[in-house]
Amino acid sequence: MENIRKTCLHDKHLSLGAQMSPFGGFDMPIQYEGIVEEHNAVRHACGIFDVSHMGEVFVSGPGATDFVNHIFTNDVRGVEAGKCLYGMMLHPDGGTVDDLLVYVRGDNDFLLVINAANIDKDVDWIRRNAAGYDVVVDHQSDNIGEIAVQGPLAETILRKVTGLDEIAGLTFYTFGNYTIYGNADVIISRTGYTGEDGFEIYAPREITRMLWDDLLEAGAKPCGLGCRDTLRFEVGLPLYGDELADNISPIEASLGMFVKTDSHDFIGRDAVAAQKASGASRKLVGLEILDRAIARHGAEVLDADDNVIGAVTTGYRGISVDKSLAMALIDSSYAALDTPLRVRVRRKVFPAKVVPRKFYKKSYKK
Amino acid sequence: MKTYFTPTHEYLTVDADGNGLIGITDYAQKALGNVVYVDMPEVGDEFSEGDDFGAIESVKAASDLIIPASGEVIEVNSALEDNPRLINEDAMANWIIKIRLTDPAELDSLMDFDVYMNYLASDPH
Fold first, then answer.
1. CATH, residue A323
2. A292 and A229 share a domain?
3. Chain B residue closest to A345 (CA)?
């Protein structure tokens, strides 16, 4: 692997004995003790993730609100400071450049948090499309570390470590600017990617290292990207590269509620508005495989006559739900709940049926 | 009963009837972690040495199962269908398939226990 990158916590993963693997251009921990143990820690206690591979881009200046709305499917106008919005950047044809969180920091002042694998593509996309807008694009991915603290004990442990009792007042998808360790400025949001309550902390690299050690000391379990994927999968959250891609629109991925085609103009709006109006030809659905077999990314989905009608985007034997489950992008004429389908796994074909994509109930602090 | 080993961490134990009991080694089950599914062939299926005869799946990924010697499947371990984690509990006791060996001479090219232990101790696999 050429030019594989390391986060500011890389040496700590090695000393914890993590199994490492490349992800999004970074050498990342897949698991420490084991995916199942780490998954359950997040569902029932508290796990911490190194998500420093995520990208951070600050956008500010007199034209920032108009510019973010120009490239973003959600609508940042009139949103008060301290709120996060989820949405996508789209190609003109409606395909997805990336899905991202936008932090509204103030009037014309935003933080865009983007996927590691897309950092170079996104920064280039943002800069190119900023022509004509009075904005400053400040790419800070290399200077900012990020830790996700997730699970029902996340608030207790993060308050104990930081002394910040005021984070109890943060509700889901809000954030604040805080000072920890005497003089370190950090951003803490009540966000995550697990379906559980939790926080994400953006801090300078050295502060991220101190925070990681203190969170472990306080009883949080180190968790790798392996269980991050099983956790997000069980609650039906998309992963760019599986459920979203340059050739998959958010309408096809059943994420239309984050695409405000009626409120503002943005790149790709005409394409996704047409899909919303007439229905996309493909749709992301949940599948339950009526067997123990696991249909993973790329497995063919078949109708009763063995015609290929789509493919699995992510599939697992559930950990919190003891079923073989999958998300699949299929011909939308087969997308109705309970439609009987089949999946091909290696040499065999197994029966499946369409089910809701939320396999496990989320526990957010609304 | 003599047991043979492959570089891809399957074992083949010759039972009292001269048939081959095939599974994965303890090293392999530890490397996989929690086994959640075993994709097994059907009784009557025939394989040649080196064919993949099924797959074993952990939470994260599927791994092919490579047959150590040629033969016809005469039994599959159906207990693994409902309880694949038996392999984590005791990989050597919980074989996956039983085959009638079509060319027992092929066993000579496999590793015995001592050679396999040395193999594990040598390079990363």
1. 2.40.30.110
2. no
3. B39
Q: Do B33 and A30 touch (CB under 8 A)?
A: no
A149 falls within a domain: yes
Q: Which residues of B touch A294 (CB under 8 A)?
A: 36-37, 57, 62
Q: Write the single-letter amino acid at A150.
A: Q
Q: Tell whether A211 is covered by a domain.
A: yes
Cβ contact A35–B60 (<8 Å): yes
Does the beta-carbon distance from B39 to A348 stay under 8 Å? Answer: yes
The answer as to whether A213 is a domain residue is yes
In terms of domains, do A34 and A167 share one?
A: yes
Name the residue range of residue A225's domain: 10-52+142-234
**How would you write the pLDDT of chain A (366 residues) with one tens digit per residue?**
458 999 999 999 999 999 999 999 999 999 999 999 999 999 999 999 999 999 999 999 999 999 999 999 999 999 999 999 999 999 999 999 999 999 999 999 999 999 999 999 999 999 999 999 999 999 999 999 999 999 999 999 999 999 999 999 999 999 999 999 999 999 999 999 999 999 999 999 999 999 999 999 999 999 999 999 999 999 999 999 999 999 999 999 999 999 999 999 999 999 999 999 999 999 999 999 999 999 999 999 999 999 999 999 999 999 999 999 999 999 999 999 999 999 999 989 999 999 999 999 988 887
DSSP string, A252-320: TTT-GGG--TTT---TTHHHHHHHHHH--SEEEEEEEESSS----TT-EEE-TT--EEEEEEEEEE-SS
Q: Are B46 and B52 in contact, with CB atoms under 8 Å apart?
A: no
Would you say B23 and B91 are in contact if contact means Cβ atoms under 8 Å apart? yes
> Do A290 and A152 fall into the same domain?
no
- Cβ–Cβ contact A44 with B under 8 A: no
Q: Note whether B34 contacts A35, CB cutoff 8 Å.
A: yes
Domains in chain B, please, with CATH? 3-121 (2.40.50.100)
